[in-house]
Each structure stands twice: as C-alpha cells, then as structure tokens.
Task: structure prediction
Amino acid sequence: MRKTKYSPFLTPIWLGLLGLALGLVLAVSAFAIGRALRPSLLLRGAMLNPPVPAVDFSLTDGDGQSITLYEFRGQPVLLTFSCKACSGSGALLSKLSLVRNKAASRGHELQIIVINLNPEREPSQVYAEFVHAVDTKFVPVSGELRDITDIAHSYDIYFGSSQNASVESSPLIFLIDAQGYWRSVYPLNMNAADISSDIEIIWQDQ
Result:
C-alpha cells in the first residue's frame, strides 16, 4: 500500500507557529487602524486639524548660546513672542508662569520659549533679565530683527513699532507637542486653567 507523504510544514508545530505569527500581524494591524481612526482629542484652544510641523528656528539666549526649537523634542512647548515694550507682556508672562507651575505640580516638564520682538532696543541679556524676573525657568531667545520677523510671520504674528517706541503685536501662545507638531493657539485672554487642561491632554496623548 502506498504511503501518503506529508509536508513538514503541515505538522502541528508549524501550524501552531503560523497561527501565532498570523495572530501577531492581525493584532498590530488592529492597533494601527484603531489609532488612525480614533477621534481627534478636543483641545480648548484653537486647534489645528490636522496638526502641522512647527517651524524650527535657531536663536540665542541671554548668554549667547544657540537655542533651537528642535532640541526640545520629547516634551511639550509653549511658544510666544513678547518684549518689554510690547503691551500686555507682563500679563502674558505671568499667565505662562501659572501654566508651567501647574504642569510641574503634576510631575510634567513643560518648556516655555519666549521670542524677543524688539531686539534692536532690547539686547538679548536685557531681554532675558526681563523675562526671568517673571520666571527663571523660561527660555528667552533673541536674534537679528530680520530673522525674528521671518519666524514671527511663519506663526502668523505681525508686529511693528509705534511713534512712542512701543511695539504692537498679537500676543498669541502656541502649543507644540512632544513630536514637534503645532497643535493649538491661544489668545491672551485664554484662561490659564484651560491651557493647563490642554497640556495635560497632550501629555496623556504621547
């Protein structure tokens, strides 16, 4: 009687391994599809949907050290533009300090980067002293006016000096997530508690 030949790939062991591999593929695919299809997290600021990569820059701090936005990848960033001569700067920086302290109380590191809109009248060291008088953890940066103008325009910030040497601008706050994506925008009158709530959501979404 002729014996039937069986393929070694049809043995119970091989079938079991094949089933395990197929199960892993399906599980990974289901996770990826579920993550892609989940609804966008609702933030209280003006959301960018979809988020866009934040424009990188290279400026200097009060000590003359080069600072880039890219080097803060891995943690959320609040970015804003201000100066001593800008109206509302005191209220803006105080609000950001409240937000940073709230994040710290929850064990979350949050970077606050403040770009100098008046570098020709407020040198980087003078500007840094002004910002650090509110919060020493802030990262004040400055540079050439043309470079700062280009950066500001990339974030839809437009500014100019008036006859009394004050600087008029739109005091907006930009939320950038740990992956470097611009997620939301806040006006000066946005409550600090609402911004803190969004920071917590961004942390949970990492």
User: Anything to note?
Assistant: Confidence is low (pLDDT under 50) at residues 30-39. The two ends are 65 Å apart (CA to CA). The longest strand covers residues 46-53. The helical segments are 12-37, 89-105, 124-132, 145-154, 192-204.
